[in-house]
Amino acid sequence: MKPLEEPSDPLDQETRVRLLKTPRPRSLPILPSAENTKSGFRGPLPPLADEARDIDRECRPIYAVWELTLACDLACRHCGSRAGAERPDELGTEEAKDLVRQMADLGIREVALIGGEVYLHDGWLEVVREIRACGMQSTVVTGGRGMTKTRAAEAKAAGVQSVAVSIDGCRETHDRLRGFSGSYDAAIAALSNCRQAGMQVAINTQINRLNLIDLPHIFQLLSLVGAHGWQVQLTVPVGRAADEPEVILQPYDLLELFPLLASLSEACRAGRIKMMVGNNIGYYGPFEHILRRHAVEQHGESCSAGISTLGIESNGDIKGCPSLPTESWVGGNIRREKLVSIWQRSRPLRHMRDRTDQERWGYCASCYYGEVCRGGCTWMATALFEKPGNNPYCHHRALEMQKMGKRERVVRTREAEGLPFDRASFVIETDELGDLGMPDPILDRV
Description:
Elements: H1 13-21, H2 34-40, H3 54-58, E1 63-67, H4 93-106, E2 110-114, H5 124-133, E3 137-142, H6 149-158, E4 162-166, H7 171-178, H8 183-196, E5 200-207, H9 215-225, E6 229-234, H10 254-270, E7 274-277, H11 288-291, E8 309-312, E9 317-319, H12 326-329, E10 332-333, H13 339-345, H14 347-354, H15 370-373, H16 378-385, H17 395-403, E11 406-414, E12 425-432, H18 441-445
Helix pairs in contact: 4-5, 6-8
């Protein structure tokens, strides 16, 4: 096996210590009141089109990510949904089971239940049983704080096939990001409990400036806990993550990240562990064939929201991707319309089916790979600039900037409001490389 490359830490030791000890910039609870959530949180739903087109019927979701509840027993400082309290209008168990049947009719093959924290929904086991009864695969993503041996056994009996536990670094880093001292040990125990119960286990990791240097540590955990997979993605500045932009990777940090990810991917392959990179990791750099070896084309493609993926919020709001901002990407609610109608006839879910080259702007407008990539991850671009089509978190782009003696960085210009899936405002600034040891301006300006 090729030895792992040691990552360069994007933070100096003094800055790392400061960020690990920095208190929250915003106090809890963060979820808005019931009145605000019901009346003005996402605004009026867009009307559905009169009829479905051929392309709308041809596109079928195969994978759904369902926020079953926003209630959570952690308070993660990089949580996009600002989970903590449940939404006041969450689907009841019978409503959720009816939605399961609609998902099966639509052709979905796998349902990943997320939160908040899944097991805090009173009917979560009934929902799992319905998913399995309808012939779909059932997986769960958890922070693991309350995944006891009893809960793990109940999940296995209900039909959960795989549990992914979030691990974001060594103990100190993980506990800081997860907002709870002891969350790392609880997550390790959850992996053990789920494996002993007979379920497959995997690890999910969000990558940011605090934990980039910890990625080899997480790799070592994979074998120790018997994990079959490792899903990695970049932390995106939405929700609570938008409150602490100094923790988010800068585009030029990708120059350190991608060689490391390629080395870790090769090591995972040798250990028969499947590394899956999220849609916001890319694109078209020299390691693409390694990172995307499980894809048919072995390279990243355009955003799959509303093409093959479906996102569901706990009150029945439907999006093409679970991470996209609520206020502009919800296409309908299953209490008002059938799922098939929302999927086929809502404008937000049609967006990726209808997008053209005109949507690309900035650097992405003239990029060689633009017609295939189409601006990369919609979630990342929208989180930064309130519209898709220009994504500076691109390995090819960072390398091209380096060739020109430049680097890009994102700078926050407006804070987020404090709502689930909300966003701040950012701009791209470009530096000329020349002065070694140039300070990182984002740490000085935020």
